[in-house]
């Protein structure tokens, strides 16, 4: 039977959103590689390490023990206890088991939180540069993203004044991603306290704390959550985390959030009508990750730190580029304003960060992602979640490509 090509009429909530630009860039790099091009791929947003064997073994045992059925919608008690313990010991956040929900990745929890709360016309404040998915998640749920430009002058961070100026009666959420994808910068306790003071004056605003990278930490100040420093916000903040990045478990799809009970109940209700629950096997593995020996996390963070420092030094030494030092995560977000206006050896003028990353890809064979995708130009993001050798080669190529510009 031949499958007819059809033109299905899609809902506006889908046609209004984009495919994630980072997924698209990674796909383009894969396509070029498959076509035989020698590409150094620095687009990847996931650890290059394998999930530790100790965690894999727990999952294998879970399968053997028949732990292969639906779990409670909000996650197994074992996993929620592990999350409760982790939030209490690392962040000083005390939460009851029924105020924790577990889903198929932090992404799903963030999406469902918006589905549960955002109505048409509601505004969600998103500091830029932002993780590419936030604006589209808001749009998919009928809301209006309010993008606040947070430039290098404020360390790529939201200031209390900018927050205060952006809040309106229609504001539903403010997103705080620390450490940030794409810049790696993180908020200090003092900065969070100052933002918390503004939020104290606006009780209708919820806080979406995306802390998925908070174990991949290099800064000399401790990781903290706005709820740790302003506990009064606990009844209107959702603290989101997961095992994807810290434990090299992106494919296991486990993320979670802790927040006010009515919000968590709503997320659970949505999950009960969509996926029923996250994978039982992945939940067993995630509980083992959180409660087991953390030595592998410490070791991998050391590796990320070395790579980040090396790439940061190298990029800063290239004429035309400059880069803020990250506090955590595994990305660098160099400023490329010094190459804008220059001309490539092929005679093309670089007018934007998109032109620059296309030039890097086509003439130097290095795949990165342009800053406009993250809402702040002219920058580009590169990931250090790749081997030291590949990273060195990537920096060599970027250096040569920049030198060749006139
Ligand atoms: C800032 C940020 N939040 C959330 C996620 C999603 O993580 P998960 O794999 O748990 O869905 C990512 C993944 O790239 C991310 O960069």
TrEMBL record:
Q: Where is the Aminotransferase class I/classII large domain?
A: 38-398
Q: Which InterPro entries match?
A: Aminotransferase_I/II_large, AspAT/PAT-like, NHTrfase_class1_PyrdxlP-BS, PyrdxlP-dep_Trfase, PyrdxlP-dep_Trfase_major, PyrdxlP-dep_Trfase_small
Gene Ontology terms for molecular function: L-aspartate:2-oxoglutarate aminotransferase activity
Its cofactor is: pyridoxal 5'-phosphate
Question: Which Enzyme Commission number(s) are on file for it?
Answer: 2.6.1.-
Q: Which domain of life is it from?
A: Bacteria
Answer yes or no on keyword ATP-binding.
no
- What are the entry keywords? Aminotransferase, Pyridoxal phosphate, Transferase
Q: Which SUPFAM superfamilies match?
A: PLP-dependent transferases
TM segment ranges: none
Q: Which reaction does it catalyse?
A: L-aspartate + 2-oxoglutarate = oxaloacetate + L-glutamate
**NCBIfam families recorded:** PRK06107.1
Q: Which family does it belong to?
A: Belongs to the class-I pyridoxal-phosphate-dependent aminotransferase family.
Q: This protein is called what?
A: Aminotransferase
């Amino acid at each position: 039977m031949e499958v007819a090509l059809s033109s299905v009429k899609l809902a506006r909530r889908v046609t209004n959103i984009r495919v994630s630009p980072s997924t698209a860039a990674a796909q383009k790099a894969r396509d070029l590689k498959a076509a035989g091009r020698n590409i150094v791929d620095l687009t990847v947003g996931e650890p290059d390490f394998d999930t530790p064997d100790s965690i894999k073994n727990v999952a294998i045992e879970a399968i053997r023990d028949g732990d292969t059925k639906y779990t409670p919608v909000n996650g197994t008690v074992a996993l929620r206890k592990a999350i409760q313990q982790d939030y209490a010991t690392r962040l000083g956040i005390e939460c009851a088991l029924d105020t924790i929900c577990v889903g198929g990745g932090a992404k799903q929890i963030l999406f469902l939180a918006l589905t549960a709360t955002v109505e048409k016309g509601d505004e969600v404040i998103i500091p830029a540069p932002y993780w590419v998915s936030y604006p589209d998640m808001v749009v998919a749920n009928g809301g209006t993203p309010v993008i606040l430009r947070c430039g290098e002058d404020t360390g790529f961070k939201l200031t209390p004044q900018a927050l205060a100026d952006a809040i309106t009666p229609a504001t539903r959420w403010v997103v705080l991603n620390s450490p940030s994808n794409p810049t790696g910068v993180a908020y200090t306790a003092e900065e969070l306290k100052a933002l918390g003071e503004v939020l104290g004056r606006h009780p209708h605003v919820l806080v979406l704390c995306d802390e998925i990278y908070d174990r991949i930490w290099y800064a000399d100040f401790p990781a903290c959550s706005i709820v740790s420093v302003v506990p009064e916000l606990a009844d209107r903040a959702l603290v989101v985390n997961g095992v994807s990045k810290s434990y090299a478990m992106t494919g296991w799809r486990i993320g979670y959030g802790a927040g006010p009970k009515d919000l968590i109940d709503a997320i659970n209700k949505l999950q009960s009508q969509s996926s029923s629950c996250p994978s039982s096997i992945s939940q067993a593995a995630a509980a083992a990750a959180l409660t087991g020996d953390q030595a592998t996390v410490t070791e991998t963070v050391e590796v990320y730190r070395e790579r980040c420092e090396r790439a940061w030094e190298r990029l800063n030494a290239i004429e035309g580029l400059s880069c803020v030092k990250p506090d955590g995560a595994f990305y660098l977000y160099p400023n490329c304003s010094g190459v804008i206006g220059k001309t490539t050896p092929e005679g093309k003028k670089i007018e934007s960060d998109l032109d620059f990353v296309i030039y890097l890809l086509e003439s130097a064979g290095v795949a990165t992602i342009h800053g406009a995708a993250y809402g702040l130009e002219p920058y580009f993001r590169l990931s250090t979640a790749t081997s030291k050798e590949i990273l060195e080669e990537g920096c060599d190529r970027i250096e040569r490509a920049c030198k060749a510009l006139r």
